[in-house]
Amino acid sequence: MPEQLNYEHRTDNILDPLILYTAQIVSLILRLLAFCILGRSLISWVPNLRDSEIARALDNITDPILQPLRRIIPAIGGTFDITPMLAMLALFLISDFIRSAT
């Protein structure tokens, strides 16, 4: 007797690889953004590099993430800005969540 195919529980959808690749790309972009924030933080400690092209590029890339956080979270003691650390932590957590869900 031939085996009947059950199409209700079919998991080999053609969109599955597209969703997987999209999730991996989003996760990679989030990780790259976190490393850009790290680079910006490190460059801010080197006075000669603060006005370099790389510093301006990193500022342009990371400002859309950091500026809203700075409005919510004030600097500790008026000088120590923890928003880069919090942004990196959030980006890595979101990236890990996306990777674990795929």
Structural account:
By secondary structure, the protein is mainly α. The protein has a domain at 31-101. It has 3 helices and no strands. The protein has helices spanning 15-44, 53-72, 83-101. α1 crosses α2 and α1 (15-44) runs antiparallel to α3. The longest helix is centred in the first third of the chain and has 30 residues, at 15-44. It is elongated, with a radius of gyration of 21 Å. The two termini are 37 Å apart. The mean pLDDT is 88.
The counted number of beta strands is 0
Specify the helix fraction band.
55-70%
Number of helices: 3
Shape: elongated
**Largest β sheet strand count, sense and barrel closure:** none
- Which structural class is indicated by helix and strand composition? mainly alpha
Strand content: under 5%
Low-confidence stretches: none
> Radius of gyration, Cα only, in angstroms?
21 Å
Give the SSE string: HHH
Mean pLDDT: 88
Termini gap:
37 Å
Short description:
By secondary structure, this protein is mainly alpha-helical.
Question: How would you summarize the topology of this molecule?
Answer:
Blueprint: H1 15-44, H2 53-72, H3 83-101
Highlighted features:
single chain, 102 residues, mainly alpha, 3 helices, 0% strand, elongated
